[in-house]
Amino acid sequence: MTTIERQLNHRSIRDFTDQSVDEGTIQSLLAVMNRTASSRGLQSCSIIRLTDQDKKEAIATIAGQPYIAQAPEVWIFIADCYRNYTILHEKSAKSNQQPTLDFLFEAISDSYLAAQNVMVALESLDLGGVFLGSIMNDLDALVELLNLPKFTFPLLGIAFGHVANPSQLKPRMSLDLKVGENSYPHQYSYTKALENYDKEMTNYYDTRQHNRRSDSFTDQVLNHLTAASHKSKSLSTFLQEQGFILDR
């Protein structure tokens, strides 16, 4: 398959075989991460590769997703301002600066780009994976577990390995709701515009092999945006405790 064909067939994989990922593949994926585009070349992203089973199980508990503990590989992507601000303080002894939102967003974009590049690369090698935004359910526990310093933010994870049971391809909404030409693609009524997509999603959930349920896209939006947060504290509070300055 070509790269584009693989990207068009992307699906989240949560069920892996017991086969480990060989070290040559690991090094190739790390090299892909390292060559990812970086804002201003500051390379404000780090990875923690979890090889300790106890830590994998702790991550699975934080995320509320038991399958994480069984994944051959679990990588946590860190928006990392610590390294560069340590360099600043080493080269400028009088400096007491802390990262602002500008630097934080650069680190976040570096990390997301790196994670997506790794996913594309591992899928090109016939592996499968899933992004783990759920690691942010308890950021304090994650900081302690991974021994993270100030000026870092554990943004997301990837669990990956050899595919045991491929999942079905989830439908996506029409591009005319997402793509505008020269201005935002407003809709008179989003629920009306999404009626056919809702039917397609309902059929997908009704007929998929695992975790069948009755659901639609607009119902998911309603439920997610009105549900109580599972996070242990607000994101702004956590970031301030990690030393980031959020008001400039």
Describe this structure in words.
The chain has a four-stranded antiparallel sheet with strand order 1-2-4-3, sandwiched between helices. The protein has ten helices and four strands, in the order H-H-E-H-E-H-H-E-H-E-H-H-H-H. Helix 2 packs antiparallel against helix 5. The longest helix is centred in the middle third of the chain and has 24 residues. With 248 residues, the chain is an alpha+beta fold. The radius of gyration is 20 Å and the shape is globular. The termini are far apart.
Distance between the termini: 46 Å
Could you name the ranges where pLDDT drops below 50 across 5 or more consecutive residues?
none
Number of helices: 10
Largest sheet: 4 strands, antiparallel
- Based on CA inertia axes, which overall geometry fits? globular
**Rounded Rg:** 20 Å
Structural class: alpha+beta
Q: Looking across the biggest beta sheet, what order are the strands in?
A: 1-2-4-3
How are helices and strands ordered from N to C?
Answer: HHEHEHHEHEHHHH
| Tally of DSSP β-strands | 4
Q: Write down the overall mean pLDDT.
A: 93
Q: Tell me the β content.
A: 5-15%
Share of helical residues: 40-55%
